[in-house]
Amino acid sequence: MRGMGTMAGSGTDADGRSEARRSGRHRGTPSRLSEQLAVTALLRALARLTALTFLVVAVLAQFPFWHPEVLFFLLLAVFTLLGEARSYLTHFGPFIGLVAVYDSFRAIADDLSGNVHVHEMINVDEWLFGGTLPTVWLQSHLWDGQVSWFDYYFYLLYILHFPMPAALALYLWRRRPALYRPFVASLVVLSFSAFITYAAFPAAPPWMASEQGDIAPVARIAGDVWASLGVHGYGSIYDRISPNPVAAIPSLHAAYPTLFLLFMGRCFGWRRVWWLAFYPISVWVGIVYFAEHYVIDFILGALYAAAAYAVTMLVFARLRRRRSRGSPAGATQPEAAAG
């Protein structure tokens, strides 16, 4: 009996020690969790502080915000502050990455062909307008050597070349995801189609033709706009933001706003967004007035945008029909849509 009591006592002691160890583990768990939460909170705070510092430095340093790689890091900083950096990198990062790849390719397009075309665009514009070159005509009526309010207006829209497509892509990604991938695909098809054209047909813009004496003297008004803002050395700045001066046909400065308008109409309906046509039309007029493009350049740019939009929407429509035909016969409509 004594032995049994001893054994029972030992069992009780063992159970007590096990209970103590379990309770100790339970008592330690909140401590470890709190430490992990504190480390996670510290890392998030550091990430947000870094993002905020980057934004402040970018503004103070007057970075060229229109560059896609700068936009990538600026948006990454913003979404880090919002606590959505991982979602941004997964879903939106590839869009900016593809645009940045195109932008780097654009710089080498003029190296693939040594024959820069000058007179073809001049001849077409003069034929379209009865012997008058629109760039020369616009500057003779609007430019008097001093920067006016409409020069700032045109240039503001001009430098939104990359930010506007990025803003629309952000909206579609967050609010209209069904149109996000078609928009990205359209922009990529448009950009790389233009790159192929630049490589096959490098074309000089009006300001370059004027410097060479092929057309009447015209001003490069964008440089005057910068100078009026206290920024000098426009030529070196332009070389950084547009490293290929003969990437003129088609005009992507005209094509991107056209694609923007097409997707806005698709997203909201033309009755609601018809007034947004002022954006591409203003850009078309501005790039001709600034001597950055000929009229035929923006006509071809708009046509490239319409073709990229039509082809991409057709391909995605066919892919949706194919997926719907391949969905299980017994699936409900929401299930088929999800598939």
TrEMBL record:
It holds the Pfam family PAP2_3. The keyword Transmembrane applies. It comes from the Bacteria. Residues 137-310 form the Inositolphosphotransferase Aur1/Ipt1 domain. The chain crosses the membrane at residues 41-63, 152-173, 180-201, 246-264, 273-292, 298-317. It is a multi-pass membrane protein. The keyword Heme does not apply. This is Inositolphosphotransferase Aur1/Ipt1 domain-containing protein. Residues 1-32 are annotated as: Disordered. Its main location: membrane. It is found in: Membrane. Keywords: Membrane, Transmembrane, Transmembrane helix. It comes from Actinomadura miaoliensis. Coiled coil: none annotated.
